[in-house]
Q: What sequence folds into this?
DNA sequence: CCTGATTCTTATCACAAATCAAGATGTTCC
DNA sequence: GGAACATCTTGATTTGTGATAAGAATCAGG
């Protein structure tokens, strides 16, 4: 059974028959490290469900510097919901951090699946989850220090801490790799131990 | 006709009859400047549609400092969607900047209204709009300088610029009022003119 | 009105983080 | 195994913003 099927059957009350029907035209895609799946200012016409591997979304500022918005490991959704829904230019890039396998979800899929109330309800839940994630991220950025944001990150995404290079974590936290290195050094000095 | 009725009939294909039916138990609430409508860590059980006036949402950090998340003038929605939907503690406060009149939308309203497809579709659109707003806000915070954020703000919310005190704009931008004052001075020196 | 409170500006000082630079360590791939 | 590259750390310096304080301008209420 695919990761996506297992996920949907577990999270919703969709039946096997309904699942078969709405996913009959779905495809999975294998992508390699470094591959770009969405470019800023392009229309996002697909939302991805990560079956294995790791993706990220990020913007590039006027100075050409990357700023990571989100990581998407196994069983996460990623895509520019705004661009997908409104057919507007995407607000960020999406690319591949590890070789990954994705379920590719397009408009025909959502149109068909949303006819099933249990999927439609679940999709609404996913949207609310997305809102929560963005809101928490926003709160941390405006209200917490770099050190607090780092501690929050390793608590919230413990397995990512080991999987992504530190310069990406720094980018996600909104600081430079040098600053993150110093924060880690200071935490070590204060005898802080991760995973305790 | 209430601002809310006018808004809904204009933005959706809801009929007058349907409107009457779903809103029969709705109430409007008049609130005064300074009144707190939602407290962080409490459950958000109402979403507000602002008919007149101006609200804001904000968090308070560990040091006790406010950070404004959002302004909500006429015809805007405000509420902690996450707390409302998941029954979780709210991530921010909501209070009143100007005396305002609100349409108070609770769970019974949404339960009834979502039975009407044209409302349900519209609600999904509102959620996507919210996601877009949060995403743009996030992008600005991580990728733009304080000056860029200020210029973006006065372009995006020209009428708010005149209605809210500058220390609130500074709080929204994630800087101190002093820093905003310096930025404005510098912009004036560079001969920048708003509303040209 | 007048008074007190709030808001905005300006100045000085301090500090956190960015930048610049160099070295050390680790990884990939031929 | 070694070359080439990427990553992480550390140090020196600069820069932007915060903290604090004080004065000017504006606003609100008795």
A:
């Amino acid at each position: 059974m695919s990761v996506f099927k297992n996920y949907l059957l577990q999270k919703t009350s969709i039946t096997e028959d309904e699942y078969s029907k709405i996913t009959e035209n779905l495809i999975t895609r294998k992508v390699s490290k470094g591959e770009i799946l969405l470019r800023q200012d392009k229309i996002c016409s697909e939302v991805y469900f990560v079956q294995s591997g790791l993706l990220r979304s990020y913007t590039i500022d006027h100075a050409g510097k990357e700023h990571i918005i989100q990581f998407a490991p196994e069983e996460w959704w990623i895509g520019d919901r705004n661009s997908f829904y409104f057919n507007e230019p995407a607000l960020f890039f999406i690319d591949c951090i590890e070789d990954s396998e994705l379920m590719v979800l397009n408009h025909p899929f959502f149109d068909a699946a949303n006819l099933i109330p249990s999927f439609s309800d679940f999709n609404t839940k996913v949207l609310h989850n997305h809102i929560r994630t963005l809101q928490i991220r926003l709160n941390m950025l405006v209200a917490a220090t770099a050190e607090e944001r780092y501690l929050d990150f390793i608590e919230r995404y413990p397995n990512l801490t080991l999987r992504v290079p530190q310069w990406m974590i720094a980018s996600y936290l909104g600081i430079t790799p040098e600053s993150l290195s110093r924060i880690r050094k200071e935490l070590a000095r204060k005898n802080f131990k991760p995973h305790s």
In short: Chain A has nine helices and six strands. The radius of gyration of chain A is 18 Å. Chain A has a mean pLDDT of 92.
